[in-house]
């Protein structure tokens, strides 16, 4: 009967499993001079601290910021379009009337501005014509 638990007993089949041979069979991990450099370690430590505190989100590349902004704008536009589609017929009609009223207001404002910016002699001529008509109507009556 064989006892396998004794340290002195070794089987010739298991001779490659001795502690000296185990190290020789596996390649050793190479030491990276970049990772061992003090600057790299400091930078890595700073990045980890920034990530934990949430500062890394502020230092995004410009391209990433622009892409995120476009995505947000696209989502907002999509939501507005969906809201527009969901509007009832009454709401649509009210919006059309509101737009017409706004256009009329803009046109009246333009006319008033044109009258205000008109030369003085045109204003006087217009008022004389009105008073002339009023006098003529008063005489006919």
Automatic annotation (TrEMBL):
Keywords: Coiled coil. Residues 1-39 are annotated as: Disordered. InterPro entries: FAM107 (IPR009533). Residues 1-16 have a biased composition (Basic and acidic residues). Residues 69-117 form a coiled coil. The keyword Coiled coil applies. The keyword Coiled coil applies. It holds the Pfam family DUF1151. It comes from the Eukaryota. PANTHER family: DOWN REGULATED IN RENAL CARCINOMA 1/TU3A, PROTEIN FAM107B. This is Protein FAM107B. It comes from Prolemur simus (Greater bamboo lemur).
